[in-house]
Amino acid sequence: MKMWKVYVILVFVMMLWGFNLPMLKYLVAQIGPVTMTSFRILLASLVVFIILAAMKILRLPTKQEWKWIMLGGLLNVVGHHYFLTQGLTQTSGTNAGLILGTGPVLTAILTSLILRNYPSKIQWLGVLSGLIGVSFIILAGGEGVATGSIGDFLVFLAILVQVLSYLVISKAARTLDPRVMTAYMFLFGSVVLFVVSLIQEPGEVMKFGEVPHIFWLIFATSAIFSTAIGHMLYNQSVGIAGPSKAAIFINFNTFFSLLGSVLFLGEEIGLRHFVGLIFIVIGVLLGSGAAEDLWKKRKEKFEKDPVQ
User: Fold this and answer.
1) What pLDDT is recorded for position 48?
2) What share of the chain is helix, strand, coil (3-state, %, to 5)?
3) What angle is formed at CA 180 by the lines to CA 176 and CA 186, rounded to 5 degrees?
4) Band of the pLDDT at 181, cuts 50, 70, 90?
5) Staple 204 to which of 28, 35, 259, 281, CB 3.0 to 4.6 Å?
6) Are 107 and 243 in contact (CB under 8 A)?
7) Mean pLDDT score, 210-220
8) Which three-class secondary structure state does DSSP give residue 62?
């Protein structure tokens, strides 16, 4: 697959994830977060299995691949979703947004340390630009940055384990299709989260029988599109582009979350949001390597035919 197609897919995934935020805000208000998440991810896993079966690429993993699946499921599904839902109940949205915005930076650092895959100076500049853009959008709310708390630490753990999972996915992609890995990770992770929910949120399962009809529409939309299709496409992109380049696009998540809140929750958008978007776009172009690739191609074309 050509890289520009991967970049388009990543932007599309960020839109799905960003618009998922207002849906999740509604869902967790109806059902305990761990309980709701376990069933949402279970539905997502079933959807991915059906899609992969229809594509005829579904297969049983080897013993070694099962190790990657279980490790990835514990990090990407169980750890990330558990720490995030718990952290959001104990910190401000401003703090959480800023911490989640460090994802590309953490990915670049950990990729350099663990995989020995060092980003270029231009890519580091893109990471910095994206972080500035995320900060503009988050701080545009006017709340400022609240004092640190255990919630901040939990949100940081959420993004840290997610970044580590991308390194696992990148390693496993050498033999296992990331889309197939996604299905098994979701299934494994949803079972673990369900066991946790029985301990931490006893009785919440019964509330599924009391929710309004609109809950099921939002629940299905979130599980099928944002979680199933979104993660399947993102993990595939990680396998192709690598964790560092794919993570740069996470900066778009903040913008689309804001846009989703404007469209569905009636929140306002201002000048700082557009300034933040500009920095994010610049960050993605530089950090993903797209700008460098375009420059190299134009330079090679000029060297071959200076007249043009």
Assistant:
1) 95
2) 80, 0, 20
3) 125
4) very high
5) 35
6) yes
7) 94
8) coil
Length of the chain: 308
Q: What are the structure tokens assigned to 213, written together?
A: 């009809």
Q: Where are the domains of the chain?
A: 3-304
Do 7 and 247 touch, CB atoms closer than 8 A?
Answer: no
Average pLDDT for 101-126 = 67
- For residue 43, the model assigns a pLDDT of 97
Q: What is the pTM of this model?
A: 0.76
Q: Residue 296 corresponds to which amino acid? A: K
**Three-class secondary structure of residue 17 per DSSP:** helix
Q: Note whether 52 and 229 are within 8 A (CB).
A: no
| d(C-alpha 61, C-alpha 10), whole Å | 26
How far from 119 is each of 2, 110, 113, 122, 125, CA to CA, in Å?
20, 11, 11, 8, 10
